[in-house]
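haha ok so turns out i had the wrong file open the whole time. this is the CORRECT one, sorry everyone. sequence first:
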Amino acid sequence: MASISRVKERAEEQSSAMSDDQQSAIRMLANDLHRLNQSVMKAVDAGVSVELVRSARHHSEGNWGDLMIPVIVTQSR
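then structure:
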């Protein structure tokens, strides 16, 4: 439990140094990632393997972010 507490503490420290717009963008990203993870689990449960691969890197004013694509492998049943 101590490591979970430390992760939350570190996230709060980082977010306190961000602007409101940055905090909003991070919350939206976290929500979208949660939905993506749910979709990956649903696809795996349906019988496909899913790998997320970086397709490109987006740059803006010295910042960057990885853009992802799914690589899907279907399995015969």
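The chain has two helices and two strands.
again sry for the mixup
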